[in-house]
What does this fold into?
Amino acid sequence: MSTPMIVNRLEGDMPKIGIRPVIDGRRGGIRESLEEPTMNLALACARFLSENLRHANGLPVECVVADTTIGGVREAASTAEKFRREGVGLTITVTPSWCYPLETIDTDPWMPKAIWGFNGTERPGAVYLAAALAAHNQKGLPTFSIYGRDVQDIGDDSIPEDVQAKLLNFAKAGLAVATIRGKSYLSMGTVSMGIAGCIVDEGFFQNYLGMRNEYVDMTEFIRRMERGIYDKEEYERALAWTKENCKEGEDINPPERRRTAEQKVEDWETVVKMALIARDLMVGNPKLAEMGYGEEAEGRNAIAAGFQGQRAWTDHLPTGDFMEAILSSSFDWNGIREPYMLATENDNLNAVSMLLGHQLTNGAQIFADVRTYWSPEAVERVTGKKLEGRAACGVIHLINSGPASLDGTGQQSLNGQPAMKPFWEISEEEVQKCLDAAAWCSAKDFFPSGGFSTDFTTRGGMPLTMARINLIHEIGPVLQIAEGYSVELPEDVHDVLDRRSDPTWPTTWFVPRLTGTGAFKDVYTVMNNWGSNHCAVSYGHVGPQLITLASMLRIPVNMHNVPEEDIFRPSVWSAFGANDVTGADYRACAAFGPLYK
It folds into this structure.
């Protein structure tokens, strides 16, 4: 069995978590009595996070603990300098006691920060927690409050389950913020078919994400194909692997519009080259330097990218579906590896949605159109059958022309159930199952120059989260979230519904979890309130993590079905309206403004 490729393929070290043990600085018995329990608490926190987190590229998460406890401003400054040298991207302050807030807090404006105020009675850390949060709030430094529900004894360095959940939520979201900072979004082409999400808003990327924007014209693909600017040995290996593992599916085009067998052979050669070139454009390839193409070998340090395709490309050359689907998957001819975040139609807003989901789940994402709401009545009218089970109240048909990752087949398993797992947990057997579950169908006739669309149906029973960032005039970015499940429809029902759209494209039947009110009153209302034609789909119910991450980036959430008790935002958010959570989120994000502006 090949070993998954765990590597940082981008420039920049992976961010670390800084642990700040703060202490009552008064000497003469007070500080001395607290040194050991305070440092032990910090070490326990660091140990817990390191044992339970990985970066999305599979590398272990490192924690950096301050050299000493922090009782005053000099030690705070010394710790900040150590964190700067060590590449810390977020901080967690821990304390079991009262300390002097203004002298000990972390004041870095870009660093996501949390305070774990130990719930104890001997030297109440909760008092420091409240005072330090007030100081952060007054200084305009939003900070997350972590406070255990149950009282512990001083010297008890165990971490209660409720504290563990908040530590993991905060740390994973903070690592996402720090990881994407300074990376690139690569736009390959421009706007596809007049879709507004394809318009690259540099202010959004720079001010909210801390990212830079890179651009290439799609003619760069033609140049590299015609001049052989790709690894020839890898191309032959990739083409052989593709022929062996990517079986052709149904061709639904009328006979007079079908590609000949010779044309299809050429199409496969082209789409494999496109995949190699897109990857090289994103992250570079040292092989190109050996071939004399030093500039091309550098890549664009792109953590996410998009390919315009339609129509300037697809009117003349094969579609980008193979390129997008295989790169977005957790495996290819080189083995099991981290998926690339590559959006079809250069929908950069969906690419960012995919990127955030990937950073939080470590897994591949499904790129899809939010295509159709099928009511129970409409299904019964066209099929003669009633929807049952989770699908009884209707389903949303998520389907696009074929760029969804093959992980989206649901052929991986976790505890015996369908799943989309972090790449380092995927077996070769599961890779083969994903490949076997997908067929590659000839592109429909509105792609006149051929190519192949991925055809599969996602297995039912997977907890999924739909997400999408939209840009709203005079508001800026907003995030919408819908947690739910994939469902399987009876084969005869699926076939009728699928063929009314396109049977050669990947289908995920999705049912959101309903609340009975607002945007989640029923399935129709969810569909009716979705703000774009596209969405990104993550495995698992990760709405709480997305909400936490959005608050760090100052992006309000306009629509979600996450229980209120699971929402974790900076403590200052409640000051904007504790009884109006959604409105408070908007007001807080507007007041503090983009993280990097």
